[in-house]
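Thread: S-adenosylmethionine complex, take 2
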Amino acid sequence: MARFLDQQKQMAFFYAEQDAACYDDTVELTQPSYWQLHDTIVDLFRYHFGAWTTERAAAVRCSVLDVGCGTGVEGFRLLDAFPSIHLLGADFCQPMLEQFERKLAAKYGTAEWPSKCTLSLLDILDDGLNAGTILSSLPQGAPELKAIVTAFALHHYTAEEKLRAYRLFFDLLPAGGLLVYGDLFSYESPTVASYAQLHEERWILDSFSNPNEEVRGRLGEMAKNTEVLRELWIEHLRRYNLPTPIEHGWTRPHGSSNGAPAESEVLLLRSAGFVEIACPYRYFQAGIIWAKK
Ligand SMILES: C[S@@+](CC[C@H](N)C(=O)[O-])C[C@H]1O[C@@H](n2cnc3c(N)ncnc32)[C@H](O)[C@@H]1O
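Output below.
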């Protein structure tokens, strides 16, 4: 069953509902490595597609599903890097999709953007959802879906819920298809897990309390609200974030399960069927998992 029903979704995802219009201007205050993680996602796609030159990047023709696409940050970067892909952006918060659509229309024109991107309002954990329903939202003539990207969207879910989403991702991909999964993760080591959580909290406290001149200038009048947003983000992080460790088994003392997590991203992705799983990027809680079918 979907975890966040309407009223709870409004509270947990305040930044994607009532405050969606400030998301783009304030998101870098919420994450120490927000831009670096997004740059690395595009780099990983370049490696996967072997597309380092403009010609080769333009020849990449497939559909890419973006789960929790928000206002389009990774979506625009992928569309810029690979101009012949079709992006299927899925999100369960309508105000985020509205921001994304406004930007698509400004960049490509109202008549043109639907040939580049399809936006779909859906909860990836909805019981009624399956690969067929998602694929049927692609327009006729859209190329085959060969990759899935998701950024900062799944860290609110339990292991069981994530496994459901990973099985769906697996079903959606052809053999050799790729999942690039950037998000907040924890550590098997309880000590490092708590450092990483503290690092996340301190970043939010510092950056919203003292936004730099450039951010202040960009925020204009809204800069006055940064303290309110800071409290909302801290509450969100403490109450709703459930980061899972990526690694599994490395530090488990021989013959004991003390301190070892009950699950890990590697195990969950393996159970869903993914065969090649790696973590090419990590910075405290932020990380990218690369998983191939
Ligand atoms: C922090 S934002 C990230 C947006 C964008 N990917 C980025 O990196 O800026 C998380 C997004 O995931 C969406 N989301 C969270 N859970 C979801 C679910 N179960 N189904 C669809 N979208 C979801 C939220 O609505 C929100 O727009």
